[in-house]
């Protein structure tokens, strides 16, 4: 069970890093068109687009949906990890 908890935590970490890389790449148009970034976009865009539907850009340029998406991901991580730890404590 501890391996599962560690694995889930690692998945959340990797996805968080992918989101950060995606957001930072948007500041560098040449890099954001690279093959690597297109691959990262396949994984991150569906999640980020969910938040973009509900949160409009500020002034048409500043997109805070990625910040909200990142915070939501961190909250979800805490909830999932807490639930897994609670289940683990019941099994001991």
Tell me about this structure.
There is one protein chain. With 92 residues, this protein is mainly alpha-helical. It is 82% helix and 0% strand. It contains 4 helices and no strands. α1 (2-25) packs antiparallel against α4 (65-91) and α3 crosses α4 (65-91). Belongs to the YggT family. The chain crosses the membrane at residues 6-28, 62-87. One of its GO terms (cellular component) is membrane. Keywords: Membrane, Transmembrane, Transmembrane helix.
Task: Note the topology.
Elements lengths: L1 H24 L3 H4 L2 H20 L10 H27 L1
CA-based shape: elongated
Q: Largest sheet at a glance? A: none
Residue runs with pLDDT of under 50 for 5 or more positions: none
Total DSSP E strands: 0
| β-sheet strand percentage | under 5%
Helicity range: over 70%
Number of domains: 1
Q: Please work out how many helical segments DSSP would assign.
A: 4
From the N-terminal CA to the C-terminal CA, the straight-line distance is 10 Å
Mean of pLDDT: 92
Structural class, please? mainly alpha
Element order, helices and strands?
HHHH
From the alpha-carbon coordinates, what is the Rg to the nearest angstrom? 16 Å
InterPro entries: CCB3/YggT
Protein name: YggT family protein
Keywords: Membrane, Transmembrane, Transmembrane helix
Pfam family, one: CCB3_YggT
């Amino acid at each position: 069970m501890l391996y599962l908890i560690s694995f889930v935590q690692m998945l959340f970490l990797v996805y968080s890093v992918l989101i950060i890389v995606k957001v930072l790449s948007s500041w560098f148009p040449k890099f954001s068109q690279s093959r690597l970034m297109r691959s990262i976009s396949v994984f991150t865009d569906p999640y980020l687009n969910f938040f973009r539907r509900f949160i409009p850009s500020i002034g048409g340029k500043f997109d805070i949906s990625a910040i909200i998406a990142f915070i939501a991901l961190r909250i979800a991580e805490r909830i999932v990890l807490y639930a897994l730890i609670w289940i683990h404590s019941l099994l001991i």
